[in-house]
Amino acid sequence: MTDSEYVSESDGVLTITVSTAAAGTSLAPGALVDGAAALREVAGGRRDVGAVLLVGAGANFCAGGDVRAFAGADDRSLLIRDLADTFHEFIRALRDADRPVVAAVTGWAAGAGMSIVLHADVAVAGPSSRLRPAYPGIGLTPDGGMTWMLSRAVGPARARRIILTDEIVDADAGLALGVLSTVVADDDVRTTAADTARTLADGPREALSAAKDLLTAALTTDLDEHLDLEAASIARMAGRPDGIEGVDAFVERRRPSFS
């Protein structure tokens, strides 16, 4: 399995540190490569985890790309295209792993950091947490799926306003918009996110993955199609080990022990 300074596994949770403290908590290319490799192991059944936890290396979750590295490149377009492709392979691997994703959004999540937060199923933040597109400030356009995810999260009009005006979204606004899931004390962000990830990992993994699939499908199906998908999914889960255990445990008035 692929563990590194950016990737670790404990209690059924795969933790990926997406930024590096060495460059001002900027996006870590090594984290993208190692993280994508570990996530592909999850998707391929070679790593048994029930949740993914995304964290930052320091006070910030991720302050965006390493702009100083951009400035020092002989060919900026080539460097940034290579980084974007690597970043997008990580995003695709995060999707394909099909596990609940929790983000511990400490401090700033700007640029690529904000893009990553948008892919989390549960984003835990503190009162001092801030999100910002950041790309317009350096004359670039978003990557990491920001324009796709933000439009779906907050609606096209709000997404245009936030991205085009490079709006700073504080914790309260992020919670109200549905970009953040919960706001706790700043000192509790990492602990709460880790506890949430462990709780998800201890749950009915196949059912949670199937629920994620339904939520994704809901973006492109009409109601009739979606009702059929839900009916097929719940029937399938009823015959699976966790579905059988969950129903039996409820009837027997005990806590379920999911596989």
Description:
By secondary structure, the protein is an alpha/beta fold. It has two domains: 7-201, 2-enoyl-CoA Hydratase, Chain A, domain 1 (Alpha-Beta Complex); 205-251, Lyase 2-enoyl-coa Hydratase, Chain  A, domain 2 (Orthogonal Bundle). 49% of the residues lie in helices and 14% in strands. A six-stranded mixed sheet has the order 1-2-5-6-8-11, sandwiched between helices. The chain has a three-stranded mixed sheet with strand order 7-9-10. Helix 1 packs parallel to helix 3 (76-97) and helix 5 (146-154) packs across helix 6 (156-164). The chain is globular, with a radius of gyration of 19 Å. The chain starts with 6 loop residues before the first strand and ends in an 8-residue tail after the last helix. The model has no long low-confidence stretch (mean pLDDT 95).
What is the count of DSSP helices, taking H or I runs of 4+ residues? 11
Q: How would a textbook summarize the main sheet? A: 6 strands, mixed
Q: What is the average per-residue confidence, as pLDDT, rounded to a whole number?
A: 95
Order of helices and strands: EEEEHEHHEEHEEHHEHEHHHH
> What is the strand content?
5-15%
How many domains? The number is 2
The CA-CA distance between the termini, in Å, is 21 Å
Q: What is the CATH H-level superfamily of the largest domain?
A: 2-enoyl-CoA Hydratase, Chain A, domain 1
Percent helix, as a range, is 40-55%
Order of strands across the main sheet: 1-2-5-6-8-11
Return residue spans where pLDDT drops below 50 for at least 5 consecutive residues. Answer: none
Global geometry = globular
Oligomer: single chain
